[in-house]
Amino acid sequence: MDATLAADLEGLPGLLERVRAQAVDFLDGLPERPVVVPSQPPGAVPLPERGMGLGRALEVYAERWEPLFSASAGPRYLGFVTGGATPAALAGDWLTSVADQNSTSALDAAGHHLEQATLEWLRELFGLSPAQQGTFVTGATMSNTVGLAIAREWLGASRGVSVAESGAGALGRVRVLSGSAHSSVAKALSMLGLGRSALVPVATLPDREAVDPAALEAALLEAREAGEACVVVANAGTVNTVDFDDLSALAALRDRYGCWLHVDAAFGAFGALSPDHEHLLRGLDAADSICVDLHKWLNVPYDAAVQFTRHRELQVRVFRNAAAYLGPLGESPDPVHLTPENSRRLRALPAWFTLLAYGREGYREIVTRCAANARALGDAVESTPELRLLAPVRFNVVCFTLATDPTPEALARLAADVGREVFVTPTVYAGVPALRAAFSNWRTTSRDVERVARALRERVAHDG
């Protein structure tokens, strides 16, 4: 064994204690750490011929890289609908690396069994029936991709072909209809060989991001008359305003027109925990496939999401991995047959820890507090003359702009100027350049909202 590696092994308990202390210092500093640190990468360093060992590597990391990292795990990082990592999720993530399990095969099954147990809890958390079978993936993009891959196979089966065997060319023209599809949907269609142009926007309700069911029915009728297969991508929580499609109405259209219904509920699925929002999830269980992101409101570390579907047999047809060393397929497919990945870490363990530690009640509190925080910031924006709220605060996202001259450049300056206090991301809503603040971090309190509002008010007053 390499001498430096052997020394690290012998001194591992003490080294891990140093890691623990360094991690605690970082976490303790989150409330006052600059939310985003404007920086340039440090100068290049050549790969060492002789390693320096973990102890010295910790020192170099603390000197060169840690000061540049944002406070993305902290309470005022409001971009990208990013959660953080609860104490239990952090412990689970550390132990995931410690155990280093291969969770893809029944030949070494403990990780697989833990994943299944965790998926059952998540299914219950979101109010889904046992007909919805799930699997872990990296994030919402991969969850949407897997769901649409199963949809592609279903469309082929309805035409007597297997796309998994014959390729997307055997399917013919496909229309993917959506009112306000997330950008990952077009990316998924590109990867799946259906093409970005397959995504056809459908009119939304007035002053809403929710699809107009009448317009969607007209689009489905047009596709039927053209002999084209259809997938409907519904939203349970849009990016800009957290708008929800009428999922029950869309499920009825699915039944009437024989299309596939995929629901992107990346963070909106957690509305099932909120007494004020749970009605918006009616009809979710009827979907053919569902996307839910876990490194958002479940507050587990990057990267983690789940994908649910009622059509497990088609999922296996798409992702089946045939190799003698994997063993037979069996009645309960191993995860290796359910996603594009043959290799995956045990993402279920942080989720298992945090669900067990805090339960439904704990997550209901996080969701309702985040919604209250968003309403409070929305009220602060409305009371600031230099700012304008662009849409009602429906759940956990505040979409706002400058009251006058809301150019992308002006908004970028505002976001940069307040970046040490809060991270918000640019967007465009109803043709107007805007900023959005998304609340999903378990640490965020009303005091953080007051601090964010104060930073925004002081900056726009100064610029005015």
Automatic annotation (TrEMBL):
Annotated keywords: Decarboxylase, Lyase, Pyridoxal phosphate
Please indicate which superkingdom the organism of origin belongs to. Answer: Bacteria
SUPFAM superfamilies, per the entry: PLP-dependent transferases
Q: Which InterPro entries does the record associate with it?
A: Aromatic_deC (IPR010977), PyrdxlP-dep_de-COase (IPR002129), PyrdxlP-dep_Trfase (IPR015424), PyrdxlP-dep_Trfase_major (IPR015421), PyrdxlP-dep_Trfase_small (IPR015422), Pyridoxal-P_BS (IPR021115)
- A biological process from GO: carboxylic acid metabolic process
- Gene3D superfamilies, alphabetically? Aspartate Aminotransferase, domain 1, Type I PLP-dependent aspartate aminotransferase-like (Major domain)
- Where does the record place the modification N6-(pyridoxal phosphate)lysine? 296
* UniProt xrefs under Pfam families: Pyridoxal_deC
* Needed co-factor(s): pyridoxal 5'-phosphate
Q: What PROSITE patterns does this protein's entry cite?
A: DDC_GAD_HDC_YDC (PS00392)
A GO MF annotation of the entry reads: aromatic-L-amino-acid decarboxylase activity
Describe the family membership recorded for this protein in Swiss-Prot or TrEMBL.
Belongs to the group II decarboxylase family.
What protein does this entry describe? Putative amino acid decarboxylase,pyridoxal-dependent protein
